[in-house]
Specification:
Length: 304
């Protein structure tokens, strides 16, 4: 895994997010394996237990705290997003998409099990995410209307207007050169939508005022782009060992990326620009916190 370089409060938050989300998703893994004994239950548990950086979870938690949220039960909302993200990784690695063998330093789910099981486990994680979210909202004692708002944010971001739509553009763009606008559209959907939703959901769960949720959403939109640009740079410059997945896949698949369009230095500058814009949105709304600025910095410097 890429080494985390983050300012102290962001580093502490990421460590907290990893510990808390791993614990909660570990409980869900046990529950699902007991509900569904056999290979599918095992595959669900395997995918949920793979150790990610939990950046989206940390963004939920930091956004929640930035508007005054204080309950530790926020980890449930964070884990719901991480569950959707995990499903996307299981499917992204399938032979019909990126066809990868390693993820998070471990064999991908279809390598550990097989393609039909990994395909089904990926789909099954979507209703699991809904269950995780709904349990979290009950624990936070929030009204049903808030559950509806959070579910809309999460599942719209995960759908054709967001992550699936962006991945679709990505698959269509293989071996075809995209221009910068096309690339931004693809990145904003494929990676940005879920990250944007993480920030919005943190603000909504914390009961943030309209303009605060809007600023967090704008921050999330910029930071989501910065994240995917940094991911493109890492794919081009990192090692498989450090990344926990096969490095250099974008070039192998002849994908258009920020690196193929702007070069490594140009891509790094673009990531830094989006991160700066992200923090400006917070500043404009008086929401700048060390955790949120530290996460913006972590996103563009990770793996350096
Ligand atoms: C049916 C077209 C269609 C799509 C299904 C597969 C899919 C949905 C979407 C793919 C979305 C995807 C994999 C985007 C890449 C996002 C990304 C940069 C992942 C890496 O995120 P990290 O670094 O990973 O946060 P960890 O492992 O730390 O969680």
């Amino acid at each position: 895994m890429a080494e985390a370089v983050a300012e102290p409060s962001a580093a502490a938050l990421l460590a907290e997010a990893r510990e808390e989300v791993d614990r909660l998703l570990g409980e869900w893994a046990d529950r699902l394996a007991a509900e569904r004994p056999g290979r599918i239950g095992e595959a669900l548990a395997y995918a949920l237990r793979t150790p990610g950086k939990r950046v989206r979870a940390a963004l939920v938690m930091a956004s929640y705290r930035s508007v005054g949220g204080r309950s530790p039960a926020i980890v449930g909302v964070a884990s719901a997003i991480e569950t959707v993200h995990t499903y996307s990784l299981v499917h992204d690695d399938l032979p019909c998409m990126d066809d990868d063998d390693m993820r998070r330093g471990r064999p991908t789910t279809h390598r550990q099990f097989d393609v039909p099981i990994a395909t089904r486990a990926g789909f099954l994680l979507v209703p699991v995410a809904a269950r995780v979210l709904s349990k979290a909202v009950a624990e936070l004692r929030l009204p049903t209307a808030t559950l509806g708002r959070l579910a809309s944010e999460l599942f719209e971001a995960g759908g054709i207007q967001g992550m699936v739509g962006g991945q679709w553009l990505d698959l269509e763009a293989e071996r075809r050169r995209l221009d910068l606008d096309g690339l931004i559209r693809m990145h904003a959907g494929k990676t940005g939508a879920l990250i944007r939703a993480a920030c919005a959901m943190g603000g909504i769960t914390g009961g943030g005022r309209g303009e605060h949720v809007a600023a967090l959403t704008a921050y999330g939109e910029e930071i989501g782009l910065a994240f995917q640009i940094a991911d493109d740079v890492l794919d081009a410059t990192g090692t498989s060992e450090a990344l926990g997945k096969t490095a250099g896949r974008d070039a192998e698949l002849a994908k258009s990326t920020y690196v193929s369009l702007l070069g490594v230095d140009g891509a790094r500058e673009a990531a830094a620009l989006h991160a700066r814009r992200a923090v400006d949105h917070l500043e404009g709304a008086g929401l700048r916190t060390p955790e949120l600025t530290g996460l913006a910095d972590f996103i563009i410097t990770r793996g350096h």
